[in-house]
Structures are given as structure tokens and as C-alpha cells.
């Protein structure tokens, strides 16, 4: 797999990144001022059409769209899907102009600069480089820009019903390391039940809040146990936290119910059933100790963890392209957060993550290192040449 003779248009790449950062694509499910992906989706579709890709736009919900551009191959090779999300988190509290896209000392600043509009620009610039060099691929190259990764991933959920490929690269920021695994998560509602009574009637009242306290004490012990487990070599151990509590109506009344919303982060290999069984065991044990302890637990939303083998063809192809570009074997890492890679992998695509260097995801100051974005574009183009054959 020798390095091909292609060139990334760096001016085009920087301009794409700046113009997309200047577009408000805040996820409206996260914050009221969010405009969704309609405007940035139209921009992406226009640019992909300009370089000669077959482009389709899919409206998932009002103002929420996916864009797919296809660089058609001859039909005799492997297909490769490149994926990035167009939505961002909100801008409240930012210490820089979130839509300014200013460049200083090789860094481009703004909301979504690293997470992940620069990555999307690198995907588009890689496709342009292949077209400009008149390089014919044997398999299709798909450029996919999706909605809603920052909330519920309705974009990638819709995408996998419409298109597929043999392999996928999700260009979430990884500081140019190859990410082969990340954790999943499960959200739970836990409710303890009591009996409402006037505060003076201790013989009648059953305090649901106190009973939730018993559950929380055991949950704390489980959390410590999880953190001591071996976990996964790349992602570390599983974890959990108690996020929100609500119980009782008035100071002088025993609480009839108490609700806890909690999250359990899962390591590769763990399932919803296994995690739920551990929590149910706590409830069963507390109920056996006291007949007045009554509680229910319900998983309300979850996403599976992700893992790909180091010997997978797409990983080895990406490794080679990175080695050629950066001059040494890339580090393989895992992430503690979740990404759309898990959905693509579950849909049967051999998936890996690679994205640019930067700083400040979801924080007051966000920037992306422009040289790493150029490197990413080269690596994606070279990977497409060597994989889609």
C-alpha cells in the first residue's frame, strides 16, 4: 500500500471549517436557541454536489436532516463510510465568539470546531482530493453528515436504515489516535414507594425518601465495586452515578414516593440485562430485610458499548495511512464517552474512530488544530484508496 500522488486543498479545507463553524447548528433538543441541522445540511449538500458526488438529503424531523454524498466506485471493491455529526452543544458561558471561527497560531476557534465540523470538512476535502486527482475507486466512498449525535442520535439511527458499507470511520476528535473502543450507557428510573401520612402519625407513615436513602447507600458500594473491576483494557472500568432525586410534597407529610434518575456506564462486553440484574439484586436484598421496602427499577434509554479488533482490515488500513502521514505507528486508545460508532458497528459495519487534535469539547473555549485537520484529510483519502479496492 504505497502512498498515492494526491493533494489536499488546504484553503478549501480551512474555508469549509470556518463557514460551517459560523452556522448555528446547536441541537434544539438541548437548548432553545438551537437551529438544528437544516442550514448546515444545505451547505454540506451544496459543497458535495459541487465536487461531483451523488447527494441526497433526508429530513428526519423538522429542521433535522442527514446528508449523504456518494463517490461511486466501479462496483468491484469494498465500500467505506465516513461519518460526522453536524449538531453542536449550546454556547452559554463561552469565553470566545462561538460563531467567530477566528484563526490564531494555527488554531481555529468556535463551537463545534473540534466537535466536529473540522472533521466533516476533512471528510469533504478528502473526497475532493480524490476527484481532483481523478482517482477511481473500486468501491463506493460515502460521506455522511448526520443530525442529533449530541442528544439521541436520531440521525445515525435513520442513516443505518438507508445506507450501508463494509467499513466506517467516525471522525470524532481523538487527537489523531486510533480509537478502537468506547463505553456505553444506560439510563434508569428507580422509584421507592412509601405511604403518605401526617408527620405526627409515625405508626401510619412510610417514608419513601428514607427508603431511597437505603438504596443509595448500597448504590454507593456498587459504584466502588465497579471502579475496582478490571474493566476493558482501552476504556477502563464501568461506572455509575445518581443524577437526579425527587421525592415528597410537603415538610409535614411522609413522602409517598421518591424517584431517582441514574446512569450506568457500561464497558465493552457488558449488557443491559447484566447491569439491571445487579441493581435489582440490591432492591431484592433490601426488601428481604424490611417488608416495607418497596422499589422498582426501569431502564429508560441505553446505548451499547463499542469495540473493534486491532486486526480488522479497516483498522490495519487506517494504521498504515497514519504511519505514512505522521511517520510512526499510531497509538490505539479507548474512550470513556459514547459515539455513533456503536450504532454503525451494530449495523454490521467494521468501524473505527479517528479525528483531529484540539481542546475544549463542550466547554467555554473550543478550538481545533488546523494542521491535524489537514493530516486527517490526507489519511482519510489514502485510507479510501487502499480500502476501496
Please indicate the percent range of residues in DSSP E strands (runs of 2 or more). Answer: 15-25%
Q: How far is the first residue's CA from the last residue's CA? A: 11 Å
Instruction: Give the full name of the CATH homologous superfamily of the largest domain.
Output: Zn peptidases
Number of strands: 17
Radius of gyration: 24 Å
Share of helix, binned: 25-40%
Instruction: Specify the number of helices.
Output: 9
> Per CATH, which architecture of the largest domain?
3-Layer(aba) Sandwich
Task: Give the CA-based shape.
Answer: elongated
Number of domains: 2
What about the largest sheet?
6 strands, mixed
CATH topology of the largest domain: Aminopeptidase
User: Looking across the biggest beta sheet, what order are the strands in?
Assistant: 1-2-6-3-7-15
Q: Outline the low-pLDDT stretches.
A: none
Structural class: alpha+beta
Write the element-wise H/E pattern from the N-terminal end onward: HHEEEEEHEHEEEHEEHEEHEHEEEH
Q: State the name of the first-level CATH class of the largest domain.
A: Alpha Beta
What's the pLDDT, averaged over the residues?
A: 96
Amino acid at each position: 500500500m504505497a502512498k498515492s500522488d494526491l493533494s489536499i486543498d488546504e484553503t478549501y479545507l480551512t474555508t469549509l471549517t470556518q463557514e460551517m463553524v459560523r452556522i448555528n447548528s446547536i441541537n434544539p433538543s438541548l437548548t432553545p436557541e438551537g437551529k438544528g441541522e437544516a442550514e448546515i445540511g444545505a451547505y454540506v449538500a451544496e459543497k458535495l454536489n459541487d465536487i461531483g458526488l451523488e447527494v441526497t438529503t433526508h429530513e428526519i424531523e423538522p429542521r433535522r436532516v442527514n446528508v449523504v454524498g456518494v463517490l461511486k466506485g466501479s462496483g468491484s471493491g469494498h465500500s467505506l463510510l465516513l461519518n460526522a455529526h453536524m449538531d453542536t452543544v449550546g454556547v452559554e458561558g463561552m469565553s470566545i465568539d462561538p460563531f467567530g471561527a477566528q484563526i490564531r497560531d494555527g488554531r481555529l476557534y468556535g463551537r463545534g470546531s473540534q466537535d466536529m465540523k473540522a472533521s466533516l470538512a476533512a471528510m469533504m476535502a478528502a473526497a475532493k482530493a480524490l476527484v481532483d486527482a481523478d482517482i477511481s475507486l473500486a468501491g463506493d466512498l460515502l460521506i455522511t453528515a448526520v443530525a442529533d449525535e449530541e442528544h439521541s442520535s436520531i440521525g445515525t439511527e435513520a442513516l443505518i436504515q438507508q445506507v450501508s458499507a463494509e467499513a466506517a470511520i467516525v471522525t470524532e476528535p481523538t487527537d489523531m489516535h486510533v480509537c478502537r473502543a468506547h463505553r456505553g450507557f444506560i439510563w434508569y428510573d428507580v422509584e421507592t414507594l412509601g405511604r403518605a401520612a401526617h408527620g405526627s402519625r409515625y405508626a401510619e407513615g412510610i417514608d419513601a425518601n428514607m427508603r431511597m436513602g437505603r438504596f443509595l447507600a448500597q448504590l454507593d458500594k456498587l459504584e466502588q465495586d465497579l471502579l475496582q473491576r478490571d474493566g476493558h483494557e482501552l476504556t477502563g472500568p464501568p461506572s455509575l452515578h445518581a443524577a437526579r432525586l425527587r421525592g415528597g410534597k410537603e415538610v409535614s407529610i411522609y413522602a409517598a414516593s421518591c424517584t431517582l434518575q441514574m446512569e450506568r456506564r457500561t464497558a465493552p462486553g457488558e449488557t443491559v440485562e447484566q447491569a439491571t440484574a445487579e441493581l435489582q439484586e440490591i432492591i431484592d436484598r433490601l426488601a428481604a430485610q424490611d417488608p416495607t421496602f418497596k422499589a422498582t427499577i426501569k431502564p429508560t434509554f441505553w446505548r451499547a458499548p463499542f469495540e473493534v479488533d486491532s486486526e480488522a482490515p479497516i483498522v490495519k488500513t487506517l494504521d498504515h495511512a497514519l504511519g505514512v502521514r505522521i511517520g510512526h505507528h499510531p497509538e490505539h486508545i479507548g474512550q470513556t464517552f459514547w459515539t455513533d460508532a456503536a450504532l454503525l458497528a451494530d449495523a454490521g459495519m467494521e468501524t473505527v474512530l479517528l479525528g483531529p487534535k484540539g481542546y475544549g469539547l463542550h466547554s467555554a473555549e473550543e478550538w481545533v488544530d488546523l494542521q491535524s485537520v489537514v493530516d486527517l484529510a490526507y489519511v482519510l483519502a489514502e485510507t479510501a484508496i487502499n480500502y476501496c479496492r
